[in-house]
Automatic annotation (TrEMBL):
<dbReference type="InterPro" id="IPR009003">
    <property type="entry name" value="Peptidase_S1_PA"/>
</dbReference>
<keyword id="KW-0378">Hydrolase</keyword>
<keyword id="KW-0720">Serine protease</keyword>
<comment type="function">
    <text>Catalyzes the removal of dipeptides from the N-terminus of oligopeptides.</text>
</comment>
<dbReference type="GO" id="GO:0070009">
    <property type="term" value="F:serine-type aminopeptidase activity"/>
</dbReference>
<dbReference type="InterPro" id="IPR019500">
    <property type="entry name" value="Pep_S46"/>
</dbReference>
<comment type="similarity">
    <text>Belongs to the peptidase S46 family.</text>
</comment>
<dbReference type="GO" id="GO:0008239">
    <property type="term" value="F:dipeptidyl-peptidase activity"/>
</dbReference>
<dbReference type="Pfam" id="PF10459">
    <property type="entry name" value="Peptidase_S46"/>
</dbReference>
<dbReference type="GO" id="GO:0006508">
    <property type="term" value="P:proteolysis"/>
</dbReference>
<keyword id="KW-0031">Aminopeptidase</keyword>
<keyword id="KW-0732">Signal</keyword>
<keyword id="KW-0645">Protease</keyword>
<protein>
    <recommendedName>
        <fullName>Dipeptidyl-peptidase</fullName>
        <ecNumber>3.4.14.-</ecNumber>
    </recommendedName>
</protein>
<feature type="signal peptide">
    <location>
        <begin position="1"/>
        <end position="18"/>
    </location>
</feature>
<dbReference type="GO" id="GO:0043171">
    <property type="term" value="P:peptide catabolic process"/>
</dbReference>
C-alpha cells in the first residue's frame, strides 16, 4: 500500500469512528441516530428498539438491582446478567460447605432456584419529555436555591399526578444537566431468583489482575429468573409466584461476530461527566483521583493479606474487596488515560473555540464569563472537595467500623431533630439492616484497615478542617484502643449499646470509643466542609447547566449526547480492535486457548476448572465453536460506563451476540473524555455463555428455554 493510501484510510477511519461514542435516549433515536446506525450496518428500525405501542427490544432490557443491566432471554423470564452483578447474591447463598462462588451453582429445576430478598429488576414502560412541566414557574426565580426547590416540588407533584397504572411508578430524571427532563414510567419486579452461575474460575477468571484489561478471558455471566403474581404483575416473594412472561425476549445468535460487525449495547449507564471544563479535569487528575487511590490502595493491601491466608475471610471479604478494587483500578487507568490523551490540553483548545463562538454569536453577556467563573469556583472548592473525598473514602466507604459508627451518629441526629419515636423506629430498622453486615465483618481485618486509613486521614485531610484529637495521631495505638473498647464490633455488642430509652442509648454511644472518633470526623465534615462545599457546588452545577446549554446552541455541528444518569440508553458501534501503544495492536476476539495460556493451577485468580480443561482438550465445543476454536470475549466501539454491566450486545437484527461487562485499560477515561481510537467496551461472547450452560454445566433444562438463531445464514 502506498503511504498516501494508508494515510487516507487512516483519515477515513478516524472520521468514521469520531462520529461514534455517545449514550443515546432510546425514544429519540429516530431523529438523532437511526441514519448513522443504519450506515454502520444496522438492519432494524428505531421502532424495533423502542416502541410504546408494540413490544420492542427495550421490553427485554431491565435495570438489574439498581446498579447493573440484565436481559430477558426466554419466554419464562430467564435473565442474563454478569457474574459480578450477581456476585453479592451468589456470595450470600454461599458457606464454606456450599461455596457457590468457588464451585458455581445450577438449578436443574425451578424448585431449586434461590430467592434473593431485596433484589429487584426494573423495566421501562415508556419515556416522555416533561421539560416544560418541570420548569413551570421557575423562570422568574433568581436565586439558584429557590429554582432547584421549585423544580423538586414540580417533580414530586408531577410524579404523583401523571397517569400510570397502580403497580407502576413515575420517575423523572434530568438530562443535559438540567436543560431537559424526561419521565420514565417503570415496573419493578421483586421476586428474583438465582438460577445459575459458573464457578468464579470462569465467571471471575483473571479477577482483579485482568479487571479493566484487554485481552480478557472472563465468562462474566450469571442467570436469574423473574417471578410474578398470577396476573404477571410485580409481587413480593411468594412460593405461589410464577415465572414472568415477558413482552419481549432476546433470541441468541449462534453465528457469532467478526471485526466490523455492527453492535448495539442497550442498558443503564450510571454516570459520566463529559462536558466538564478543563479546570475540573485537572483537579480530578492531580488531586482527587490520587487521594482516593491512596486510601483504597492501603485498604486493599490489608484485606488481600488476610484473604490469602484464610478461606473463611476470603468468602467474607470477596465481594467487598472486589468492590473496592474495582474503582481503585479504574481511577488509576482513568488518570493515566487522561494524561496520555492530553485531555486537559484538548479541553482547553475546545474552550478557546467555545470563546470564539460565543463572540461570533454575540452571546458574551450570557456566556462570556462562564469559563472564568469555573476557574474561580473550582479553585475555591478544591480543599473542600478533597476533604469530602477523604472523609467519604476513609470513614464511610472503606473502614467498616466507622461506617457502622456513622450510622449510630445518624441515629443520634434522628433523636435530636425528630424525637424519641422516630429514634425508636430507626433504631430497630438499623439493627435489622446490620445483621448481614456482621455476618461478613472481621474485627482483626478491620482494625488493620482502620490503622492504615486513620494514619492517612491524620496526614492528608486538609489541616484547617482536621479535628484536634486526630492531629499527629499514633495510628497503631489508637486502633488498638478503639477496637478493644468499642461495642460496635459485634451484633450483640451493638444490641447492648442500643438497649434502653433514647437518652440512655445516646449517653452510652457517646462513651463508646469508635463512636467518639467517628463523630469527630463527621462533625468536622458536616460543620466545616459540607456547607461550603454544597454552596460552591450549587454554583458549579448552575454554571455547568448554562455551559451545556451554550454548547447545545453553539455546536450544532457536533451531535451532543446527554451525560449518563442511570437511565436506559443505546450506544452503538462496531466490533473493533485497537492500537494501545507503540508497536502493539490488539485484535478484537479472544479464545479459550487464551484461558489455557493464563492458567495457573491453584491460583486464586487464574485457576481453571478441570471440566473446562477436559472440554478444551477434547475440543468439545458443539455448535458454539468456530473453526475448531472457542471464542470467549470481544471488544467494540460502544460507549459504555459503570451500570452497563450485564447489558446485552445486540447484532444488526436484534439478536443477542454478547454480554457487556467491562472496558479496556487505556480507555477507562471515557467517562470524562471519550477517545474513539482507544476506548473499547468488553463483552463475553454469547456462544461462550451457551457453551458453559450446555457443555460445562449440562443444564439442559435451561437450554430448552432459549431461542437460538442463525441470522447470518441466507
Ligand atoms: N470493571 C468491571 C466493572 O466496573 C467489572 C468489575 C468486576 N469486579 C472486579 N473487582 N473484578 O464493573
Ligand atoms: N464493569 C462496569 C459495570 O459494572 C462496566 C464498565 O464500567 O465498563 O457496569
Amino acid at each position: 500500500m502506498t503511504r498516501l493510501l494508508k494515510i487516507l484510510i487512516l483519515f477515513v477511519c478516524v472520521q468514521m469512528s469520531a462520529q461514534q461514542g455517545g449514550m443515546w435516549i432510546p425514544s429519540l433515536l429516530e431523529g438523532m441516530n437511526e441514519k448513522e446506525m443504519k450506515s454502520l450496518g444496522m438492519k432494524m428500525t428505531a421502532k424495533d428498539i423502542y416502541d410504546v405501542n408494540n413490544s420492542s427490544l427495550k421490553d427485554a432490557v431491565p435495570q438489574f438491582n439498581g446498579g447493573c443491566t440484565a436481559e430477558v432471554i426466554s419466554p419464562k423470564g430467564l435473565l442474563l446478567t454478569n457474574h459480578h452483578c450477581g456476585f453479592d447474591a451468589i456470595q450470600n447463598h454461599s458457606t464454606v460447605e456450599h461455596d457457590y462462588l468457588q464451585d458455581g451453582f445450577w438449578a436443574y429445576n425451578m424448585q431449586d432456584e434461590l430467592p434473593n430478598p431485596d433484589m429487584v429488576v426494573m423495566f421501562i414502560v415508556r419515556i416522555e419529555d416533561v421539560t416544560t412541566k418541570v420548569l413551570e414557574g421557575t423562570q422568574a426565580l433568581t436565586s439558584e436555591a429557590d429554582k432547584q426547590k421549585k423544580i423538586q416540588e414540580n417533580i414530586t407533584s408531577l410524579s404523583n399526578s401523571l397517569p400510570k397504572e397502580s403497580w407502576q411508578e413515575n420517575k423523572i430524571r434530568t438530562f443535559y444537566e438540567g436543560n431537559q427532563y424526561m419521565l420514565f414510567v417503570t415496573e419493578t419486579y421483586k421476586d428474583i431468583r438465582l438460577v445459575g452461575a459458573p464457578p468464579s474460575s470462569i465467571g471471575k477468571f483473571g479477577s482483579d489482575t485482568d479487571n479493566w484489561v484487554w485481552p480478557r478471558h472472563t465468562g462474566d455471566f450469571s442467570l436469574f429468573r423473574i417471578y410474578a403474581d398470577k396476573n404477571n404483575k410485580p409481587a413480593a416473594y411468594s412460593k405461589d409466584n410464577v415465572p414472568y412472561t415477558p413482552k419481549h425476549f432476546l433470541p441468541i445468535s449462534l453465528d457469532g461476530i467478526k471485526e466490523d460487525d455492527f453492535t448495539l449495547v442497550f442498558g443503564y449507564p450510571g454516570r459520566t461527566t463529559e462536558y466538564l471544563p478543563a479546570v475540573a479535569v485537572e483537579q480530578i487528575v492531580n488531586e482527587l483521583n490520587p487521594a482516593k487511590i491512596e486510601v483504597r490502595d492501603a485498604a486493599l493491601k490489608v484485606e488481600d493479606g488476610f484473604m490469602r491466608k484464610d478461606q473463611s475471610i476470603k468468602i467474607q471479604y470477596a465481594s467487598k474487596y472486589a468492590g473496592i478494587a474495582n474503582y481503585w483500578k479504574k481511577w488509576i487507568g482513568e488518570t493515566q488515560g487522561l494524561k496520555k490523551s492530553n485531555a486537559v490540553a484538548l479541553k482547553k483548545k475546545d474552550e478557546a473555540e467555545f470563546t470564539k463562538r460565543v463572540e461570533k454569536a454575540a452571546k458574551k453577556a450570557e456566556y462570556g464569563n462562564l469559563l472564568t467563573e469555573f476557574e474561580t469556583n473550582y479553585k475555591e472548592i478544591a480543599p473542600y472537595g478533597l476533604a469530602r473525598d477523604y472523609f467519604q473514602e476513609i470513614a464511610l466507604r472503606n473502614t467498616e467500623l466507622t461506617s457502622v459508627a456513622f450510622r449510630m451518629y445518624q441515629l443520634e441526629q434522628v433523636y435530636t431533630t425528630k424525637g424519641e419515636q422516630a429514634f425508636n423506629a430507626r433504631k430497630q430498622n438499623m439493627i435489622d439492616q446490620l445483621v448481614d453486615f456482621y455476618k461478613d465483618f472481621n474485627k482483626t481485618v478491620d482494625e488493620k484497615v482502620f490503622e492504615q486509613l486513620i494514619a492517612i486521614y491524620s496526614k492528608k485531610y486538609p489541616a484547617q478542617f482536621l479535628p484536634a484529637s486526630l492531629k499527629n495521631v499514633n495510628a497503631t495505638a489508637l486502633a488498638s484502643e478503639v477496637y478493644s473498647q468499642t461495642k460496635l464490633t459485634s451484633l450483640d455488642g451493638l444490641k447492648s449499646l442500643l438497649n434502653g430509652d433514647a437518652k440512655t442509648v445516646i449517653t452510652n454511644l457517646n462513651n463508646d470509643k469508635a463512636f467518639k472518633v467517628t463523630k469527630e470526623m463527621a462533625e468536622s465534615y458536616f460543620n466545616s466542609v459540607a456547607p461550603k462545599y454544597d454552596e460552591i457546588n450549587l454554583k458549579i452545577s448552575a454554571l455547568q447547566r448554562t455551559y451545556v446549554k451554550a454548547q447545545l446552541e453553539l455546536f450544532k455541528d457536533k451531535r451532543l449526547f446527554p451525560d449518563a444518569n442511570s437511565t436506559l440508553r443505546v450506544t452503538y458501534g462496531k466490533v473493533k480492535g485497537y492500537d494501545p501503544k507503540d508497536a502493539t495492536i490488539y485484535t478484537p476476539v479472544t479464545y479459550l486457548d487464551g484461558v489455557m495460556e493464563k492458567y495457573v493451577p491453584g491460583d486464586y485468580e487464574f485457576d481453571v476448572p478441570q471440566k473446562l480443561i477436559d472440554l478444551y482438550n477434547e475440543k468439545d465445543y458443539g455448535q458454539y465453536g468456530e473453526n475448531g476454536k472457542m471464542p470467549v470475549c470481544f471488544i467494540g466501539t460502544n460507549h459504555t460506563t459503570g451500570g452497563n454491566s450485564g447489558s446485552p450486545a445486540i447484532d444488526a437484527k436484534g439478536n443477542l451476540i454478547g454480554l457487556n461487562f467491562d472496558r479496556v485499560w487505556e480507555g477507562t477515561m471515557s467517562d470524562i473524555h471519550y477517545d474513539p481510537s482507544i476506548c473499547r467496551n468488553i463483552m463475553v461472547d454469547a456462544r461462550y455463555v451457551l457453551f458453559i450452560i450446555d457443555k460445562f454445566a449440562n443444564a439442559q433444562n435451561l437450554m430448552g428455554e432459549l431461542k437460538l438463531v442463525h441470522p447470518k445464514r441466507k
